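User: I'll paste a sequence; please echo it back and then give the predicted structure.

Assistant: Echoing your sequence first, then the prediction.
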Amino acid sequence: MRKLACAVLLLCPVPALADATAEDLGREIFQDICAACHGETAATGIAGDIRGADLSTVTRALRGFEAMPTFDFTDEEQVALVAYLAALEGS
């Protein structure tokens, strides 16, 4: 019975772990690509505060506008970035 319970736990996604993973990926993307213009906390820098930006805003921004260049992020990367920006908004 214990083996069955372990197998079920491994096969069922755990939202908290999935969110942490998305947020971690988002942090990595942000630090590698976005922080230079938006600052380490996404609230400062030459490009302004993007903490809490939603998916549609991020998607539009990644197409490029004004001084922002175009970026080709996957859907997963966009969702991860949004998860990280949401976490920054609460801090």
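The CA atoms of residues 1 and 7 lie 10 Å apart. The domain at 14-89 is CATH 1.10.760.10 (Cytochrome Bc1 Complex; Chain D, domain 2).
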